[in-house]
From TrEMBL:
<dbReference type="InterPro" id="IPR001958">
    <property type="entry name" value="Tet-R_TetA/multi-R_MdtG-like"/>
</dbReference>
<feature type="transmembrane region" description="Helical">
    <location>
        <begin position="90"/>
        <end position="113"/>
    </location>
</feature>
<dbReference type="InterPro" id="IPR036259">
    <property type="entry name" value="MFS_trans_sf"/>
</dbReference>
<keyword id="KW-1133">Transmembrane helix</keyword>
<feature type="transmembrane region" description="Helical">
    <location>
        <begin position="393"/>
        <end position="413"/>
    </location>
</feature>
<feature type="transmembrane region" description="Helical">
    <location>
        <begin position="63"/>
        <end position="83"/>
    </location>
</feature>
<keyword id="KW-1003">Cell membrane</keyword>
<feature type="transmembrane region" description="Helical">
    <location>
        <begin position="119"/>
        <end position="145"/>
    </location>
</feature>
<dbReference type="Pfam" id="PF07690">
    <property type="entry name" value="MFS_1"/>
</dbReference>
<feature type="transmembrane region" description="Helical">
    <location>
        <begin position="277"/>
        <end position="295"/>
    </location>
</feature>
<keyword id="KW-0812">Transmembrane</keyword>
<keyword id="KW-0472">Membrane</keyword>
<feature type="transmembrane region" description="Helical">
    <location>
        <begin position="157"/>
        <end position="179"/>
    </location>
</feature>
<feature type="transmembrane region" description="Helical">
    <location>
        <begin position="28"/>
        <end position="51"/>
    </location>
</feature>
<feature type="transmembrane region" description="Helical">
    <location>
        <begin position="302"/>
        <end position="324"/>
    </location>
</feature>
<protein>
    <submittedName>
        <fullName>MFS transporter</fullName>
    </submittedName>
</protein>
<feature type="transmembrane region" description="Helical">
    <location>
        <begin position="185"/>
        <end position="206"/>
    </location>
</feature>
């Protein structure tokens, strides 16, 4: 088995300090993903609203979220295999086109005969395809920018996604109120098609040499499970990635159903309109924008550990505050704080994984990471939404916030607390 042990360079190069907008590839990639994110923000509001309008049940919303989460876990088994074996650009284009078709089917079916069962097929299928896309997207970014630009690039992408999300939920709420949620879902389908077109003109840098089987001297050929285990082994050998994977598994259990709960709180507890749902989610997007713009300099100044642990400690307080909010503005403030914190931690975690993982393993490591830390997500979505239906929003959010604070406290006892984990030696593959 080959060894890929190395250390990052000590300081930034001239290329690392260059503007991200030099050349056409990153701007094209950024533009397409921003448009796609705008459409996604429509579906983020419209799909739960479609279920809620049809059934009035937060538990049914949680069921759909749980099914989508389960689909991403299944897709994670083979996503890394695909990303590290096929042309990443073509894979991203195919994923966008497949999601365009999938989401376009929802309004078409609804026009013929309004029924919910297609949602429980299409939404999980699109979620699975989205998982493959996300693994490919993470693996593509290091081929678009220099190593020292990775955190900045992720911050720029997060900021643009959030900017799209700032207007998307508001427009989705207005469209849903005027024309029904299916209209917003149809727009999402169109944005995926345009994103696929933009990716046709993006060029990725040549990859590193392919992994070689030392016994035969030929490119290593592994099965899906073996590839997933290779990614798991890398995560386990890296002390910081190992701790992040374990703690994020519990955090995903706590947080994957929160968007459904926030929407339910606006509609059921506060008795407000679809437009107010869009207002709250748009406010959350503003928090993500601020985090994305600040995360690179803040991480340089405070270090990785302080950023990640502090972000999730504050996120716990924000979750509790959202549950106690008695009006839409108060809820919007709490959700904005929550989005700011989770975006800060998420960008730090993503950038670290891209920085320390060799390119030839990045797809499989990303796939293993997301598969493992998402494993409890579907159960969490079901448990949280059923608990809200039975006990109410406030006690569930208070409990979730307290556990989130506890996880942040546990992280201080792990290698996550290190300020510069990217300088650790990369474990052998």
């Amino acid at each position: 088995m080959t060894t890929t042990e190395s250390r990052p360079t000590a300081g930034p190069t001239e290329q690392d300090a260059a503007p991200l907008w030099r050349g056409r590839d990153f701007p094209l990639f950024w533009s397409g993903q921003t448009l796609s994110a705008l459409g996604d923000s429509f579906s983020l509001v419209a799909v739960p609203l479609l279920v809620l309008h049809a059934t009035g049940s937060v538990a049914r919303m949680g069921l759909l979220t749980g099914l989508a989460g389960a689909a991403t876990i299944v897709a994670g088994i083979f996503a890394g295999f695909l990303v590290d074996r096929v042309d990443r650009r073509m894979l991203l284009i195919g994923c966008d086109l497949a999601r365009a078709v999938g989401y376009a089917l929802i309004p078409l079916v609804w026009l013929v005969s309004p029924q919910l069962w297609p949602l429980y097929l299409i939404a999980p299928a699109c979620a699975a395809i989205g998982m493959i896309f996300q693994v490919g997207y993470v693996a593509a970014v290091p081929r678009l920018v220099a190593p020292g630009q990775v955190t900045r690039a992720n911050g720029q992408l997060y900021a643009s996604y959030a900017a799209a999300g700032l207007t998307g939920p508001l427009l989705a709420g207005v469209l849903s109120a005027a024309f029904g949620p299916t209209a917003a879902i149809g727009i999402d389908a169109g944005t995926f098609a345009v994103s696929a077109l933009g990716l046709c003109f993006v060029r990725l840098r040549a990859p590193a040499v392919a992994p070689v089987d030392e016994r035969s001297g030929t490119p290593a050929a592994r099965g899906n499970w073996t590839d997933l285990l290779l990614g798991v082994r890398f995560l386990w050998r890296h002390p910081v990635l190992r701790a992040l994977t374990v703690l994020l598994s519990f955090l995903t259990f706590l947080t994957i159903g929160l968007t459904d709960i926030f929407i339910y709180h606006v509609k059921h507890d506060l008795g407000r309109s679809d437009g107010d749902v869009g207002y709250v989610l748009a406010a959350a997007a503003a928090g993500t924008i601020v985090a994305a713009l600040l995360v690179a300099p803040v991480r340089r100044r405070l270090g990785f550990g302080t950023c990640w642990i502090g972000a999730y400690a504050l996120a716990g307080l924000a979750i509790a505050g959202a549950g106690l909010s008695g009006n839409v503005p108060a809820l919007a403030v709490a959700v904005t704080g929550y989005a700011f914190c989770t975006a800060t931690a998420g960008i730090c975690s993503l950038s670290l994984r891209q920085q320390v993982t060799p390119d030839l393993l990045l797809g499989r490591v990303t796939s293993a990471f997301w598969t493992l830390h998402s494993a409890l997500g579907p159960l969490g979505a079901a448990v949280l939404t059923v608990a809200v239906a039975r006990y109410g929003t406030a006690p569930v959010c208070l409990a979730a916030g307290a556990v989130c604070l506890g996880i942040a406290a546990v992280a201080t006892l792990t290698p996550i607390r290190q300020p510069r984990p990217e300088l650790l030696p990369v474990p052998p593959s």
